[in-house]
Structure formats: structure tokens, C-alpha cells
Amino acid sequence: MPDHQPSPKPWLNRYDKGVPATLNYPKATLYDLLAETVRKYPDRLATKFVLRYILGDRVMVGGTLTYGRLGTLVERFAAALHALGVKRGDRVALMLPNSPHFIIAFFAAARLGVIVVNTNPTYTARELKQQLVDSGAETIVLLNLFYPRLKEIRAETAVEHVIVAHIDDTLPFPFKQLVRLRQRKAHDWVDVSGEPGIRLFGDMLATADPAPAPAAQPDDVALFQYTGGTTGVPKAAMLAHRNLVCNTMQVRAWLTSGVEGGEKVMAAIPFFHVYGMTVCMLYGVAMAAELVIVPNPRPIENVMRIISKERCTIYPGVPAMYIGIVNSPNVGRYDLKSVKACISGSAPLPVEIQKRFNALTGGRLVEGYGLTEASPVTHCNPEFNENRAGSIGLPFPDTEAKLVDLATGADLPMDGNLETIGELCVRGPQVMKGYWNRPDETARAIDADGWLHTGDIARMDADGYFYIVDRKKDMINVGGLKVLPRDVEEVLFTHPAVLEAAVVGVPHPTRGDDTLTAFVVLKPGASATADELKEFCKQSLAPYKIPRVIEFRTELPKTQVGKVLRRVLVAEAQEQQKVAGG
Where in this chain does the record put each AMP-dependent synthetase/ligase domain (predicted)? Predict the structure, then answer.
């Protein structure tokens, strides 16, 4: 009788029709992606910049750019940067909200072979200094509102060129004048006209100088994307043009319903985060899609209104967004049926939210998985084939995945036994070159065979669907037993009063283990007590997995893309322990 060994890649049998096991990747830079779309679709709308709706939601305040016009502005900005002496291998920091400015500056840098340093606009002056010094950025492009933070620390950095953008730079009459007047009245304005040593973004777009020949090569580093900020000092993942181009092509192949030149992408997640950059901006450009750019998605009603008015078809988001939509008391006012595909990333998607969102929209909300070091997507549930609840889905084309023992690092059998858990490791064309100036960290993250160790604990079923059990570092020690936060959170999310939940282990000062603690946000108008939630958990969880402490919050601390900052919750709880202890 033949010995039937499990397939080394059982997930290939579960791909949607039309998704190949391997792709032919162009030997291209990120600029080449834009240039090809500009060539094929010069008259297609590239961006619609939505600042707000007025007059009963009928008139949009904002502006549009065709791909032809976008290409021209990229050429002009590249020429202006070149005239400043910015050259291949230099670093330019972008501290911008979602806006046409970001796209123009990003692709101009890509054209010149300049490395973009993505910078979170909410950074304090101290955090900004840390990143500028670490990256060695010589140039920064930032919104005028953010200039005071740079001014405070600029002398302590290597920044030579400061380019200040205004939110109305690309807007037509009369919206340019309307927006500027409104900002001044609201005192939401920083006047930089008297500041020395700065240049204006708008002036640089007016340059008539010819841009030099494109200088970037596919294996050049395109991006410094900082990671690790939720757990420690951030470090820059070096992502090459090739990494990002390959991941964009993988996303494009995965979403088989996408029609080149026919989609509208809701661009509400930040471009400065690699998930928003790849799955929104780069995917949108490669597909010649119209990017409906939203600089501020809060409150969530903004997102629902814009989807309804603009008839967006692709909506990449994070769980916090989908949670907000399904629980909004006003969701019935908006027609969200235009959305046909949503990819949820950055944090685990609660199963209950996924079910409710699909029922509400009729679209397909699928959970994916990735990490900064992989450009970022490595796994996703199929758009049409079985979407398994709680699963991050299947590895992308050309992406290998395996589990290794948490203690020894030895490869575990990939036999579909869901009892087998280990650290998830991935290998593929989207994996970074390494961390900037951190060879020891790089060696720990990527082994000699090219496997990226994710730090996530996972299991795989017989069909190749992977399930993230939790973060390796987030495992909670309760009396010698291991508790995975997601196990508890999934149960709490099924309670009708719970809007959000985060479970952490708070080190006990004397016992030597962790106090299992749940932080809960209730739905508006709902009520529940800690004892009620504990009793609810008892129906589904072993006694040692029942939270010992349940604390109610009005909101949870999150990163800009909606990932809960567990370390902040732990630190706050420890501080309360100190106060209580005298």
C-alpha cells in the first residue's frame, strides 16, 4: 500500500480559480509601475482627494488628478529634488497624511533611486528625532502643521532640505481658497513663510526643469519602514523595489475579481504604514484604479459616507474600522453594497465581526496576514473559495511557510494536525533585505536559508490554512499554564455588550506569574459587569483562562493603524499595582 505523504504545499489546492502557484515578476522598480499605468491610462482618474462633503453630502471638497497629470507632477517633483542635489541612495523622510502629496513624493523618490523613510505624522519631536537620526535622512517632506516638531529638533539631525506641503497644494479653484480660509479660521494652520531654509511643495511642482533619467534598480532599497514600535525601539526594515513590486503583484493575482482600470480603492488606512502603502497605494496604481484618498477616516461615519457616495469597490482596512462600521447606529443610512472585496490586516479580525460585515455589505471581507519585514503580506484567505473563520488563510504564490518548535527551532511536521503549534516562518520574494545598521537583529530575524522568523505562534490544518494562535512574546503564564490572549478575546467578542477587548498578562510582583487581565470597551448604551463577563467566559473557557481582572475602558490605546498597544496596557496596570501597594 503506498505511503501517502502530505503535500509540502497543501494550500495550492485551495487557491481560487485563476490564482497561479507562481508568478512572472517584472524586473521593474516602483516608478516603473506608475510609468506603465500612466502610459496605458493617461485619462483615467488616479486620485480623488476627499476632504469632506458639504451641502447635504452632495458636494465634495477636494480635487482629482488623472494618471497623466499625476505622472507630470511626479516628473516635476523628481526634477526639483534632483536640482537640490538629492541623488540615488539618499534618504528622504515623508511625514504626510494620506494625500496626493504622498504619492507624488514617493514615486519621485522611487524614480531617482532615493530611499523613502516613512514617518508617522503623529510622532512627537523626540520620536521624530530618533527616526531621522537613525535613518540619516537628509531631506524631509512634511505638512506645514507638523513643522513645529521638526523645528524643535532639526539642528540635532542631518536634515539639510525641508520641503513644506500645504493640504491645498493640488486642489483646484475654488476649493484651494475655501480650504485655506477654513483652516485659518479654525487656527488649524502653521505659517512657515518667515522660516529660513525651507522650500514649498507647491513651488516645486511648478518647476519646468527636465527630470533626469530614472536611476533606481530593482534590487535597490526603496523604503525604510520602521517596525517594533509596539514592543521596543523601532528599527528600519530595508525593503527593496523588488520586494514591494513582487508583493504588489501577489496581491493583484490574489484578488481575482479586480478589473484593471475599473476599480475604486478606498484609501483610508495610512500610506506611511506598509500595509496601506502596498495594499492601497501600490496595488491601486498597478491596477490603474481610482484611489479615493481620505486623510482622516475618523469618525467611522466618514468612511461609510465616502464609500456610499463614491461607490468604492475595494476597501482594505483594519479590524477597528470594521468593528466601528458594524456597530455604528447609523450604518443603515449608507449604501455599502458597492464594496466587493475587503482585506483586513494589521491585527486579528474577530470572527463575529467578519460574519456581521459580510452580511451587512454582501461583499467579501477576508482576513490576511503579514509583517513589515515581508512588504507586508504573506497569507490571505481566498476571495471566493472557502474562507475559514479565525484563519489568516493560505500562503501567497511563491511564498513558503513552515512551523518551528518554540524551544528548539527545529522544523515541525506539516501534517495538518491542529494540535501542532510552532513559530511561523516564511520565505519568498517579498522578504526584506534586512534591518538598517542592525546586522545582529537581521541575523536573528532571517536565518541562513532565508527563512524569516515572524515571532507569531501558528498552526496549520490539513488543507494548508494557517491560524495565528498568538504572538510568541504575548503568551501569558498563569500558574505555569500558558494562555493565549486571542483565545480569551474571541470569547469576549461574542458577548452582545462587548465592542472591543484586549487580554494581557500583568506580571505579579510576588507570585512570579501573570495576572490574566482583560480590558473591555462596551458598545454605546450597553452595560455589563466584570462578574457577568467572567461568568460568560466560564461557558467556553477552562478555569485558568478566565480573566482574574476585568477593567472597563472608553477606548483602547492603539497604533495609527488600529493595533492594540498591549505593552501600554501592561505598563498602566503595573503602575496601578504600585499605587495600590502604597
Answer: 35-436
User: Is 504 domain-assigned?
Assistant: yes
Separation of first and last alpha carbons in the chain: 71
**CA–CA separation, 233 vs 324, rounded Å?**
30
User: In terms of domains, do 284 and 347 share one?
Assistant: yes
Cβ neighbours for 333, distance < 8 A, ≥ 6 positions apart: 304
Sign of the dihedral through C-alpha 528, 532, 533, 537? negative
Domain edge (last residue) among 457, 488, 522: 457
Q: For residue 439, is it within any domain?
A: yes
1: in domain: no
In degrees to the nearest 10, what's the CA dihedral of 258, 262, 263, 264?
A: 180
Give Rg (Cα) of the chain.
24
**Residue 1 pLDDT:** 38
pLDDT digits (tens, 9 = 90+) for 525-562: 999 999 999 999 998 887 878 999 999 999 998 876 67
442 and 574 housed in the same domain? no
Q: Are 49 and 311 in contact (CB under 8 A)?
A: no
Q: Express each pLDDT in 212-247 by its tens digit.
A: 999 999 999 999 999 863 345 679 999 999 999 999
Residues 527 and 452 in one domain: no
Q: How would DSSP label each residue in 133-165?
A: HHHT-SEEEEEGGGHHHHHHHGGGS---EEEEE
Number of domains present in the structure of the chain: 2
Q: Is 319 in the same domain as 408?
A: yes
User: Grid cell 488606512 — which residue?
Assistant: 269
Residues 446 and 487 in one domain: no
How many residues in total does the chain contain?
Answer: 582
Considering the domain architecture, whether residues 430 and 524 belong to the same structural domain is answered as no
In this structure, is residue 21 part of a structural domain?
Answer: no
Q: Do residues 350 and 490 make contact, with C-beta atoms less than 8 angstroms apart? A: yes
Residues 6+ apart with CB under 8 A from 429: 25, 242, 243, 246, 247, 398
User: What integer pLDDT is reported at residue 380 of this predicted model?
Assistant: 97
Largest CA distance in the chain: 84
User: Which range marks the domain in which residue 575 is found?
Assistant: 479-580
pLDDT tens figures, 412-468: 999 999 999 999 999 999 999 999 999 999 999 999 999 999 988 899 999 999 998
**Three-state secondary structure call for residue 245:** helix
Instruction: Report the number of secondary-structure helices (H) and strands (E) in the chain.
Output: 17, 25
Residues 530 and 491 in one domain: yes
Cβ–Cβ < 8 Å for 168, 188 = no
For residue 311, the domain's CATH number is 3.40.50.12780
Q: In what order do the strands lie in the sheet with 400-404?
A: 400-404, 422-427, 452-460, 466-471
CATH code for the domain of 483: 3.30.300.30
544, 445: one domain? no
Which has the closest alpha carbon to 108: 116, 99, 118, 120? 116
Is the dihedral angle over the CA atoms 209, 215, 218, 224 positive or is it negative? negative
